[in-house]
Automatic annotation (TrEMBL):
<feature type="domain" description="DNA/pantothenate metabolism flavoprotein C-terminal">
    <location>
        <begin position="172"/>
        <end position="293"/>
    </location>
</feature>
<dbReference type="InterPro" id="IPR035929">
    <property type="entry name" value="CoaB-like_sf"/>
</dbReference>
<dbReference type="GO" id="GO:0016874">
    <property type="term" value="F:ligase activity"/>
</dbReference>
<dbReference type="Pfam" id="PF04127">
    <property type="entry name" value="DFP"/>
</dbReference>
<dbReference type="GO" id="GO:0015937">
    <property type="term" value="P:coenzyme A biosynthetic process"/>
</dbReference>
<protein>
    <submittedName>
        <fullName>Putative phosphopantothenate--cysteine ligase (CTP)</fullName>
    </submittedName>
</protein>
<keyword id="KW-0436">Ligase</keyword>
<comment type="similarity">
    <text>Belongs to the PPC synthetase family.</text>
</comment>
<dbReference type="InterPro" id="IPR007085">
    <property type="entry name" value="DNA/pantothenate-metab_flavo_C"/>
</dbReference>
Length: 323
């Protein structure tokens, strides 16, 4: 495989990406859901403040190699970070738009086994099933909390698979959230493809075996974080993530991303320790956030979301408006 780098201005690269992407199947439905969700959560609270809405992205995007896709390049992310963070954002009083990779971890399912349907239930006779005693509390909590968040209009879940779907959906979400000004937050935990095959250059049918060389030309995905910051939702509080496997370069790379994309914070994490510790890189300081390991049910996302929620509140106050 070969990769090339675009030298055009970002706006033209972004336009070329969107113009050539296969259009989303259900743009109208997604837009309607977003409008309703944002309207529902936009009335002032009793204390005069506005509800904060966060878009949490989660899971990895795929970059297809064929239009009728059989093979694709994937990005590592189980979706655990995004799903767990969503729960803590809800607890902190946010409404959450959860933009997630289909099949990745879901909010409220942390305490369930890998195959919840088959492992949590057992047959009582030929016609009936019941929840296994060992999981009854966990299943009840998951179902009750998920139901309350969704029916209460506090959690909107939008699935994606490909880089084309993800970026089109992120643009829709961000432009819909623009009206929230600084009350909007983006928490971009998804692992997004850096390279892709443009739709027009992609073969239609399954690539055939027989040749020892897979000749695929990859192109760099335009840096849409800049589009988010500059055009889509310029006043939003933006938190991006930086994942590295070499801890020696992690903080430097995060600091570069903070400046380059004008983020409000970059959460730096190393692959093997990501569930234990992250570093929140901001303009003033680097803050180490650790999981409290005195109890096995604790997650690093708990203190992380508390910290970001406080920073976001200060950001809203500094911007001089509740909205
Ligand atoms: O989804 P997960 O819990 O397995 O992992 C989370 C993560 C490492 C994908 C996330 O914290 C992250 O760093 N996302 C951005 C990855 C990137 O640099 O593209």
């Amino acid at each position: 495989m070969d990769a090339t780098n675009g030298s055009q201005p970002l706006e033209s690269q972004a336009k070329a990406f969107f113009d050539s992407a296969p259009p989303l199947q259900n743009t109208h439905q997604i837009t309607q859901k977003l409008v309703q969700f944002i309207q529902h959560n936009s009335s002032p609270l009793e204390n005069g403040d506005f509800k904060r809405i966060v878009c949490v992205t989660s899971g990895g995007t795929t970059a297809p190699l064929e239009q009728r896709c059989v093979r694709y390049v994937d990005n590592f992310s189980s979706g655990h970070r995004g799903a767990t963070s969503t729960e803590y954002f809800l607890k902190a009083g946010y409404a959450v738009i959860f933009l997630y990779r289909r099949g990745s971890f879901q909010p409220f399912c942390r305490s369930l086994p890998d195959d919840p349907l088959l492992e949590c239930f057992k047959p009582t006779d030929d016609l009936n099933i019941q929840v296994h005693e060992a999981y009854s509390e966990a299943v009840k909590r998951a179902v009750v909390d998920h139901h309350a968040a969704v029916t209460g209009g506090l959690l909107l879940k939008l699935p994606f698979n490909t880089i084309f779907e993800y970026l089109q959906m992120l643009q829709l979400v961000a432009t819909s959230m623009r009206c929230l000004g600084p009350c909007a937050m983006f928490y971009l935990a998804a692992a997004v493809s850096d390279f892709y095959v443009p739709w027009k250059d992609m073969v239609e049918h399954k690539i055939q075996s027989g040749s020892h060389l897979l000749d695929v030309q990859l192109v760099e995905v335009p840096k849409m974080l800049s589009m988010l910051r500059k055009d889509w939702a310029p006043l939003a509080f933006c938190v991006s993530f930086k994942l590295e496997t070499d801890s020696n370069i992690l903080l430097n790379k995060a600091a570069i991303a903070l400046e380059k994309y004008k983020m409000d914070a970059v959460v730096a994490n190393e692959l093997t320790t990501r569930k234990e510790q992250v570093v929140v890189v901001t303009r003033g300081e680097n803050i180490i956030v650790q999981r409290d390991n005195s109890h096995s049910g604790n997650d690093v996302e708990n203190p992380l979301i508390k910290l970001l929620s406080v920073r976001h509140a200060a950001y809203i106050k500094d911007s001089g408006s509740g909205k």
